[in-house]
Write a structure and sequence with these properties.
Layout (H helix, E strand, L loop, with lengths): L7 H52 L3 E6 L4 E4 L5 E2 L5 E6 L3 E3 L3 E6 L5 E2 L2 E6 L2 E7 L6 E5 L1
Antiparallel strand pairs: 1-2, 1-6, 2-3, 4-5, 4-8, 6-7, 8-9, 9-10
């Protein structure tokens, strides 16, 4: 008569493999977490920029989206400002003024939908996210790298 079942050695080997796979998976997921946070921050800023553009067109008046690089906040002027993530480094690449790393930087949206402003660059470790503005259409485009 044959005994059906697993030996203790077989169970230990299977459990060791499961623990190894779970450990490697958690390292992979933990490594992707900062990247996901950076993407979320970029999408949130781009969304608020699009909202400022929509308000300018809807109300037929200029609206300003302001990034305060010194106080690390951003938002639509006259509305509540949000804090930039502490891990993110932010700089602006202005077509006329060059690279800006301090002060308040306004992006002005006209009632026709156009925008005056540069590219917002978020750096989060090795991850770089660029939010580029089309000066004629005022569209905010989120780009990786």
């Amino acid at each position: 008569m044959k005994n059906r079942g697993f030996t203790l050695l077989e169970l230990i080997i299977v459990l060791a493999l499961v623990v190894l796979i779970l450990g490697l998976t958690s390292l992979f997921v933990a490594g992707r977490l900062p990247s996901a946070k950076a993407n979320a921050a970029g999408r949130e800023i781009a969304g608020m920029i699009r909202h400022a553009r929509a308000l300018a067109r809807l109300n037929m008046e200029s609206r300003r989206f302001v990034i305060d690089l010194d106080n690390r906040t951003y938002g639509i002027e006259g509305l509540t400002a949000k804090a930039l993530p502490p891990e993110a480094r932010v700089r602006i690449v202005d077509p006329l003024a060059g690279e800006i790393v301090g002060g308040r930087y306004p992006i002005v949206f006209t009632p026709t939908g156009g925008a005056g402003g540069g590219t917002i660059v978020l750096t989060w470790g090795r991850k770089v996210i660029r939010i580029e503005l089309d000066p004629i259409m005022g569209a905010a485009v989120l780009k990786d790298g």
